[in-house]
């Protein structure tokens, strides 16, 4: 039935969009960056000077 084709295109678009969003959310929240432990004495003012 050719007159039903737009409904299938719409469902395919919605399905692929949902799959794309779920894939991106899973990849974003599965990555946990390691936060470096920064102590006050680890950062010295001499290392923050510009070397011109």
UniProtKB/TrEMBL annotation:
F-type ATPases have 2 components, CF(1) - the catalytic core - and CF(0) - the membrane proton channel. Signal peptide: none annotated. It is found in: Mitochondrion membrane. The keyword Transport applies. Keywords: CF(0), Hydrogen ion transport, Ion transport, Membrane, Mitochondrion, Transmembrane, Transmembrane helix, Transport. GO terms for molecular function: proton transmembrane transporter activity. Belongs to the ATPase protein 8 family. It comes from the Eukaryota. It is a single-pass membrane protein. GO terms for biological process: proton motive force-driven ATP synthesis. It holds the Pfam family ATP-synt_8. It comes from Mesonemoura metafiligera. The chain crosses the membrane at residues 6-26. This is ATP synthase complex subunit 8. GO terms for cellular component: mitochondrial membrane; proton-transporting ATP synthase complex.
């Amino acid at each position: 039935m050719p007159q039903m084709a737009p409904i299938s295109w719409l469902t395919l678009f919605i399905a692929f969009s949902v799959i794309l969003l779920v894939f991106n959310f899973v990849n974003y929240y599965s990555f946990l960056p390691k936060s470096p432990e920064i102590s006050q004495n680890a950062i010295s003012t001499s290392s923050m000077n510009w070397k011109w």
